[in-house]
Amino acid sequence: MRQKKATGYGSCVVGYTLTSQSSQSSHTPSVNASQEGGGGAETGPHTAPTNDTMSETAEALAANQQSRRNITIEITNLTNKYCLLDPKVYLDSGNCHSPPQPTVRPQKTEVCNFTKASAKASGAVGVLTYDLFEKDSNGAQETLAIMFSVPYDYNIYKNWIALGIYPQGKECNEALYKEMYNNKEQNGFKREEATGSGLTFEGSSLDIKATMSPMGRAIMKVEVWDKFFSPRQHQHY
Length: 237
Fold this sequence. Notes:
By secondary structure, this protein is mainly beta. The N terminus is likely disordered. It has three helices and 14 strands. It has one domain: Cytolysin/lectin (Mutm (Fpg) Protein, Chain: A, domain 2, Sandwich), CATH 2.60.270.20. Strands 1, 2, 4, 6, 8, 9, 10 and 11 form an eight-stranded mixed beta sheet that branches. The protein has a six-stranded mixed beta sheet with strand order 5-7-3-14-13-12. This is DELTA-stichotoxin-Hcr4a-like. InterPro entries: Actinoporin_PFT (IPR050677), Anemon_actinoporin-like (IPR009104). It comes from Solea senegalensis (Senegalese sole).
């Protein structure tokens, strides 16, 4: 059974959507999405919280997880004019443990966690998207997509990661997950087995860089960069 819910987060974020689908196969793991804000000093109504008061590190969040199959995703926005808005999550199976932050502002880092369902032979598999809101144009033209797979059975499967940028409006659903996990032709995204080595997707305006560990309690670190280090290219969706 698939479930879908949307929750409004104010004027800059339309909503956070979570979709899940139960699966009986061991390679279609359960997933859990979540974000836990760290403690810190209080802030007044006119004081913007610092990054330290809004998030914790991936290692700190992962250390509190009891599940043998889960993934903690740390997203760092290193751009100067893009804000990550309106997160959506498709969970192939599982529960939401710590949801993604509604926004990832420039020069900020946020974390979330996806974990297997309890008492099930499943892992943590799904896809997370954010709209890429550009301040100069006052709108979002593209969507960042992050696919993750932490399987239950390592005798058959391995951890996988995929990064992509799609036109804004790309639905975060089962079709997107299957496209990024299964498609041999990687149009609009790049996919690799997770070994801890770096993976880079070069978009027309931004570069997405990430690493992911090969463990059952996996950590993924994602960085969103302005195009400082690579020439601007024509992107094919």
